[in-house]
Design brief:
Four copies of one chain form a homotetramer.
Chain A: E1 10-14, H1 28-45, H2 50-55, E2 60-69, E3 78-89, E4 92-101, E5 107-117, H3 123-131
Antiparallel strand pairs in A: 1-3, 2-5, 3-4, 4-5
Chain lengths: ~130, ~130, ~130, ~130
């Protein structure tokens, strides 16, 4: 249940005009930007900085993305992304991410993003994220 | 088989530096830009201009995206996207899209993008695309 | 003096990882996104919604941009943009925009962005913005 | 005269739909993407790869951008960017860049982009670019 999730795992956003396309709605690709930012904030809240681990040569890479686009968003819309994780294997985990409108909690988009570490050095990171 | 697909349904690209992120590789979200451009070129080759049909009030919207990220790409890499379609229902169709390196045809990314028309006015467009 | 400017004309941001490029710093083009968002928030605080006036056929367009890049920003950096305006002519105005770090107020970027309305219908909007 | 410039310093583009905003025209910030790509292609044609020199720790950074937006571009428009350089000082040079429509050579945007190397190690690069 969403209500059981930690509220600190919500990241709040507001749609900026430059993120909308000729249809006047948030472009499909922009949701992947939002989701990435929410994942990196999630990791940061567990003490891991994405830019830092990248500089250390530990690469977390997306290997599969599944996005269900349920509603469109327009200029100025306020929303939040709730993220949680589940382990898939030693080096692999899923981020389950949901985009909701801030004012009425309506579901905008639901995503399952599978991330892996490309080297064994990533295992402690995956362990740490799943345990926390 | 890829070889049975029409070569004209290939759109050629080259990675630009601003499309790469702090990992030095093409950012995940940018692939959705590439794929959208390839879909719109596909539609255009069937006589439909995305900006024009949008201006007419006929909206084709993405409702589901599934992307398998197989390899990374770096600055300057040349690649092409091959697209084909399959009908799912009256108003819905799948774009099957594959990103390949130009020099050795290696598979970079494979995607199934489900698109629908939000109004009945879109049905002739879906019919036209599937028939052509 | 910056201190004389209205604090409500500050828009606060935080650098997101996808806005950084292979140099590990915010890409030059991204500052124009930030500045546009700050201008649209400025206009909104004066009762004008950019998406709405665009839908009404009143186009405010950028005709000249001058940006001085003074410092770089990295992943996670917090900053704010302070905007003010000055009239240039009947249909034209300058946005004077400064990007500062939130923690120490250091200047990151300074910009003068000249905006005009392409039709006479834009004159009341320019009048309203300058007067308010 | 533009005609005296080397034709090989032209980089050709076509507007992609995702580069257009709610006004239906190419977003202002996107021109900086185009211009950066044209500069990096210019450098590459002189034997310097931007990603490679960055990896070597030699940073070429933009310190000033002046852009005159003369015409708008829409979905599908074909254009080219012509670049030339002039030395400003030991470590600093200007890129003079013009965006023209491909079909009728109309001027879309004119820019002067001042680039510097942040370390002395960049001097041979600036020398090489100006000499070539």
């Amino acid at each position: 249940m969403q209500d059981n999730l930690n509220q600190k795992d919500r990241v709040y956003f507001e749609v900026r005009d430059y993120e909308c396309d000729i249809q006047g709605i948030v472009n499909n690709a922009v949701y992947q930007n939002y989701l990435e930012h929410a994942r990196h904030q999630f990791i940061k809240s567990r003490g891991l900085d994405f830019a830092e681990i990248t500089a250390q040569g530990i690469y977390l890479v997306l290997i599969k993305a599944e996005l269900d686009y349920i509603q469109s968003m327009h200029s100025g819309d306020a929303f939040y992304i709730q993220s949680s994780i589940e382990r898939v294997s030693k080096l692999k985990l899923n981020f389950l991410q949901k985009v909701h409108r801030t004012d009425n909690d309506q579901l905008i988009l639901s995503a399952k993003m599978t991330v892996t570490s490309t080297t064994k050095e990533g295992k402690p990171i995956v362990d740490h994220l799943v345990a926390s």
